[in-house]
Amino acid sequence: MNALSKALLIAAFGGVFAGLAFADGVEVTHVEGAQARDIAPMGVPGVNAWLQDAVSAESDDKPLTCGFFRIQKSDEPLVYDYDYDEAKIVLEGEITVNDGTKTVNARKGDVLLLPKGAHITFTTETEGMAFVCGARVRDSA
């Protein structure tokens, strides 16, 4: 089972896996109440957006970091250039994503794959929150 599969199982089933070990003997990391924790502002002028890493697989060759992203209606869009692959699962509200070719209005329960090399513009008419998993080291977004 690869790191992304493990992270998605933890995200889908939460505390069910707390304290259990996978076949390779590596224990699951459990962050109780992670979604309710404060999310750090991204610090982009005119943009109401927050990102907070929650868990990370400490691997030099295949990094994986997961956390939470939140965006509220803003004066400016959030523009982000991906130098890693990332998946977002919308947990609340809606997040509009534009890759320069296509616009997607992602709502609760929707999954987005944002590939390495993508130039993405994020907006929302209200607000949205997503669980994110990216092939990057912790605190590097």
UniProtKB/TrEMBL annotation:
Its domain of life reads Bacteria
Q: Which Gene3D superfamilies would you find in this protein's record? A: Jelly Rolls
Question: Ion transport among the record's keywords?
Answer: no
Keywords, in A-Z order: Signal
Which InterPro entries is this protein grouped with? EutQ (IPR010424), RmlC-like_jellyroll (IPR014710), RmlC_Cupin_sf (IPR011051)
Keyword presence, Signal: yes
In the UniProt record, the signal sequence range is 1-23
List all membrane-crossing ranges: none
Per its UniProt record, what PANTHER family does this chain match? ACETATE KINASE EUTQ (PTHR36169:SF1), ETHANOLAMINE UTILIZATION PROTEIN EUTQ (PTHR36169)
Could you tell me what this protein is called?
Ethanolamine utilization protein EutQ
| Species whose genome carries this gene | Paracoccus lutimaris
Ranked from the top, the taxonomy reads: Bacteria, Pseudomonadati, Pseudomonadota, Alphaproteobacteria, Rhodobacterales
